[in-house]
Specification:
single chain; 89 residues; mainly alpha; 80% helix
């Protein structure tokens, strides 16, 4: 087997093996971005569990559920909720 063919095969295998892992951090970052927007409004501190849950809902495509979850939890304005949930998907 030629070296170039072997290298191409190894690189293809690595790309396929790391493909799922390469996209996972991007998805996680979106949830983190959503949480960061809310934490900025709450002026520090760790986000309550309802914020994390709502942001995960937004990441799953449930924008309206994300906004409702953030505003219903208390302390998050509608404008901040819309901005945060837009960062989630």
């Amino acid at each position: 087997m030629r070296t170039s063919t072997r290298v191409a095969g190894v690189l293809t295998g690595l790309t396929l093996a790391l493909g799922g892992a390469a996209f996972a951090p991007a998805a996680h970052a979106d949830v983190r971005d959503c949480i960061n927007v809310v934490e900025a409004q709450l002026q520090g501190g760790e986000a309550p569990s309802y914020v994390v849950t709502a942001c995960k809902t937004g990441q799953s495509g449930g924008h309206a559920g994300c906004v409702t979850g953030l505003t219903k939890g208390g302390g998050v304005t509608n404008g901040t909720a819309v901005t945060a949930c837009s960062a989630a998907p």
